């Protein structure tokens, strides 16, 4: 993407459906037999397409009408996930729980690491074992099976992993009896999954104390639900507006989902107003004050917005810090931002960001999805021309980002 920076963004932008909510709720169709799951507000993204292909390989018939997807489940599913699709996307591991619960067996190549850290699935496997699954890992492939049905029980997660919570909630849906999972992730995407499980007939109760109670059912029925708005995409555009002194309304979001980010923006002196489903950013000639940020599981500051926040703080007045506590290696974007004139030093899991007067356009590379987003918004604020290479990462999570940015006045184009 070629970006000619320095233009204050102006206008209104609509938030897409959430990638991280859509991926797990799509996997809910693997709990069905001869029934249909319908989902509205599914974003058009590479990762969604990868999940669609994976579900099709497993026997699901997928029908797409605009942003609505119908997933028709056959009576008999296949239970072997192909290596090429699982390797493309870590979230492929979300098929493990529902397939095992429905078919009694599953084989899934280990998703492996990625550029933001090692990302094991040990917590997913531990929970499934506690529910009676036998699990063997041979030549990098997880083979899981269960005699009869998975058995509901009490499970305590050592860490509130988003993926492990989702996998175990889906597995518990067809287990025998009641499952209680403690210390679960409380991201809004988990509420969306609970709603989708309820719509196919699974009694799910989220408890205020950080647990979930699920009654396993005999057979799931057809259902229809909506994917929630993408809080990370929304924050990317909010930060782009802040960085360019723009006047932008970001619509169709749930402001309470982004409290942690809005709190930091308020602390840094950004000018904005929160309306019912909209956040409006106002232009401000003043530079941001520096702030300290620590990423944490929800409702803490999301690790997925950390790189974009770093981009915004790179032109604040003074020294900010960002501590990354969720992933091991999420600062690969720093050296690219430094190529644009930023002053970011990494010391273990902390980024020390000394605000500079201005960023300058440069040729940079996206190492992962959110790093790519950070470089794009940095490019929008920078003087001169920025080229962001390896956009393939960005297409995994941002629907039509070039068109959306142009619609609020940015000068961006895709070049091959
Ligand atoms: C999801 C999101 C991702 C986001 C992350 C944290 C999706 C598709 N992806 O990823 O965008 O950055 O939540 O908000 O929803 N861990 C283990 N063992 C496990 C599972 C996780 O050690 O079995 C560790 C991971 O290595 C990582 C941390 O726990 O350090 C958080 O991972 P987790 O919450 O599971 O994230 P994902 O579900 O992979």
What is shown here, in short?
This protein has 416 residues and is an alpha+beta fold.
Query: What summary fits the major beta sheet?
Result: 4 strands, mixed
Residue windows where pLDDT falls under 50 for at least 5 positions: none
User: Which small-molecule species are bound to the chains here?
Assistant: uridine-diphosphate-N-acetylglucosamine
Give the DSSP E fraction (strand runs of 2 or more residues): 15-25%
N- and C-termini, Cα separation: 9 Å
**Gyration radius, to the nearest Å?**
22 Å
Classify the helix fraction into a percent range: 25-40%
Structural class estimated from helices and strands: alpha+beta
Q: Rough shape?
A: elongated
- What is the strand tally? 23
The DSSP helix count reads: 14
Averaging pLDDT over every residue, what do you get? 96
Strand ordering within the main sheet: 21-22-1-23
Strand and helix layout:
Blueprint: E1 2-4, E2 10-14, H1 19-27, E3 36-40, H2 46-57, E4 61-65, E5 68-72, H3 83-88, H4 96-103, E6 105-109, H5 122-130, E7 134-138, E8 141-145, E9 154-156, H6 162-173, E10 178-182, H7 188-199, E11 204-207, E12 211-215, E13 223-226, H8 231-243, E14 247-251, H9 259-267, E15 272-274, E16 279-281, E17 292-294, H10 306-313, E18 319-323, H11 333-339, E19 343-347, E20 350-354, E21 363-365, H12 369-381, E22 385-389, H13 392-395, H14 401-407, E23 411-413
Parallel strand pairs: 2-14, 3-13, 9-10, 17-18, 21-22
Antiparallel strand pairs: 1-22, 1-23, 3-5, 4-5, 6-8, 7-8, 10-12, 11-12, 14-16, 15-16, 18-20, 19-20
Helix pairs in contact: 1-2, 1-7, 4-6, 5-6, 6-7, 8-10, 8-12, 10-12
Bound molecules: uridine-diphosphate-N-acetylglucosamine (UD1).
Uridine-diphosphate-N-acetylglucosamine (UD1) binds at residues 20, 23, 90-91, 117-124, 159, 161-164, 185, 303-304, 326-327.
């Amino acid at each position: 993407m070629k970006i000619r920076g320095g233009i204050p963004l102006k206008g209104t932008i609509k938030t897409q459906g959430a990638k991280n909510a859509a991926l797990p709720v799509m996997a809910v169709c693997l709990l069905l037999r001869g029934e249909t799951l319908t989902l509205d507000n599914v974003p058009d993204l590479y990762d969604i397409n990868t999940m669609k292909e994976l579900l099709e390989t497993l026997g699901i018939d997928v029908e797409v009408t605009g942003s609505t997807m119908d997933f028709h489940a056959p009576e008999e599913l296949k239970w072997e996930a192909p290596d090429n699709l699982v390797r493309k996307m870590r979230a492929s591991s979300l098929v493990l729980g529902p397939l095992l619960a429905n078919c009694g067996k599953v084989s899934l190549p280990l998703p492996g690491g990625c550029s933001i850290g090692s990302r094991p699935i040990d917590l997913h496997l531990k929970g499934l074992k506690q529910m009676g699954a036998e699990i063997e890992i041979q030549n990098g492939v997880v083979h899981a099976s269960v005699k009869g049905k998975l058995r509901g029980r009490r499970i305590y997660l050592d860490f509130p992993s988003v993926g492990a919570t989702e996998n175990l909630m889906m597995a518990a849906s067809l287990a025998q009896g009641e499952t209680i999972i403690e210390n679960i992730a409380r991201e809004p995407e988990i509420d969306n999954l609970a709603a989708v499980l309820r719509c196919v007939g699974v009694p799910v109760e989220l408890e205020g104390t950080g647990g979930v109670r699920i009654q396993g059912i005999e057979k799931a029925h057809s259902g229809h639900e909506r994917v929630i708005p993408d809080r990370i995409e929304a924050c990317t555009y909010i930060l782009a507006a802040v960085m360019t002194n723009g006047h932008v309304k970001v619509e169709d979001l749930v402001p309470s989902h982004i409290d942690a980010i809005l709190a930091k923006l308020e602390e840094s002196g950004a000018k904005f107003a929160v309306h019912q489903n909209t956040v409006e950013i106002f232009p401000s000639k003043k530079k941001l004050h520096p702030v300290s940020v620590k990423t944490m599981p929800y409702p803490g500051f999301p690790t997925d917005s950390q790189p974009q926040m770093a981009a915004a703080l790179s032109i604040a007045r003074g020294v900010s810090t960002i501590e990354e506590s969720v992933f091991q290696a999420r600062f690969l974007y720093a050296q690219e931002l430094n190529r644009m004139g930023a002053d970011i030093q990494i010391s273990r899991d902390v980024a020390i960001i000394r605000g500079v007067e201005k960023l300058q356009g440069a040729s940079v590379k996206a190492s992962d999805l959110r790093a790519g987003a950070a470089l794009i918004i940095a490019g929008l604020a920078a003087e001169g021309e920025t080229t962001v290479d390896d956009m393939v990462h960005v297409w995994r999570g941002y629907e039509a980002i070039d068109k959306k940015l142009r619609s609020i006045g940015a000068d961006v184009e895709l070049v091959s």
